[in-house]
Amino acid sequence: MTAQLSVTGLNKNFGGVQAVCNVSFDLHAGERLALIGPNGAGKSTCFNLIGGQLMPDGGNVVLKGRSLGSLRPDQRYLQGLGRTFQIGSVFSSMTLEENLLTVIAAAEGLGPSFTQSVARKHQSQAQSLLTAVGLSDLRQRQSAELAYGDVKRLELAMALAGNPSVLLMDEPTAGMAPGERHDLMTLVVAIAAERQISLLFTEHDMDIVFDHAERILVLDHGHVIAEGTPSQVRADPRVRQVYLGE
Ligand code: ADP
Ligand code: MG
Questions:
Q1: Does the pLDDT of residue 103 top 80, yes or no?
Q2: How far apart are CA 156 and CA 100, in angstroms?
Q3: Ligand nearest to the CA of 87
Q4: ∠ at Cα 81 (180, 115), nearest 5°?
Q5: Which pTM does this prediction carry?
Q6: Coil, strand or helix: which one is 107?
Q7: 204, 233 in Cβ contact below 8 A?
């Protein structure tokens, strides 16, 4: 199997707190990998180190064979690393379509070559992304008016606008009702399969993790304490003790 994303020996210390300690893993092509662990385990820090929002004290992140080194988040996005955040990142004063047009233009790094035909192409890309996430009817709405679950869908569409080969999702269903959560994850999984996107996500709802992840990595106090299929992880005594509170 080819690794789309390869993380080696990641370390991050915040003023004496070792938030991430020697974390290594591969994310394979088309795979769905969940990163789980109790609150404060280091999940978001791992995402920020991979996404470039934070720089590691040590270790390396390789995307499709290319070391990301000190690239900024926007440069990583252009390399095919998409992400959504635990806290929203939508421009609420814009319509849904404007939000998408903004990221589509940014993803193409538009210069003086902007023409009517480019604008039309972007509009149709925006439309097909909104359709893919089930928001095409709301194209002209102000994003501030959206229901919470629809904001999450818009964020997904925005992450997809860069044609990512790897998509990072930090608690994509946080704050949603249980039924809505399953619907969103089912949509994410279908889109990832259709677009051959490898998915790395965090999620505190274990039902969702066990239903939607193919492989699970368990973090505790910054360390990887277990790794395996959902059934392997579920049966791991250390995981049950540390994470499931047994
Ligand atoms: P998780 O996402 O698994 O809940 P985090 O990665 O957010 O965990 O946090 C891991 C640890 O690092 C926690 O102890 C948290 O308090 C600490 N931490 C995270 N971000 C910062 C920061 N910017 N400054 C200081 N400490 C931080
Ligand atoms: Mg977090």
A1: yes
A2: 10
A3: 2
A4: 100
A5: 0.93
A6: helix
A7: no
Domain that includes residue 205, residue range = 3-242
Amino acid at 143: S
- Cα–ligand 2 centroid distance for 48 (angstroms): 10
pLDDT above 80 (res 240): yes
Contact 158, 83 (CB under 8 A): no
Of 19 and 88, the structure prediction assigns the larger pLDDT to: 19
Asked whether residue 184 carries a pLDDT value surpassing 90, the answer given is: yes
Cα Rg, the chain, nearest whole Å:
18
Give the three-class secondary structure for 135.
coil
Total domains present in the chain: 1
Give the dihedral sign, CA 222/228/230/231. Answer: negative
Which residues share a beta bridge with 167? 82, 199
Q: Residue 61 maps to which CATH number?
A: 3.40.50.300
Q: Whose CA is nearest to atom 20 of ligand 1?
A: 45
Q: Which residues of 105-130 are buried (b: 16+ CB within 10 A; e: fewer)?
A: eebbeeeeeeeeeeeeebeebbeebb
The reported pLDDT for the residue numbered 244 is: 63
Question: What's the token pair of residue 34?
Answer: 């969940």
Report yes or no: 165 and 141 within 8 Å, Cβ to Cβ.
no
- Gap between the Cα atoms of 108 and 78, Å rounded: 8
Q: Whose atoms come closest to the Cα of 49: which ligand? A: 1
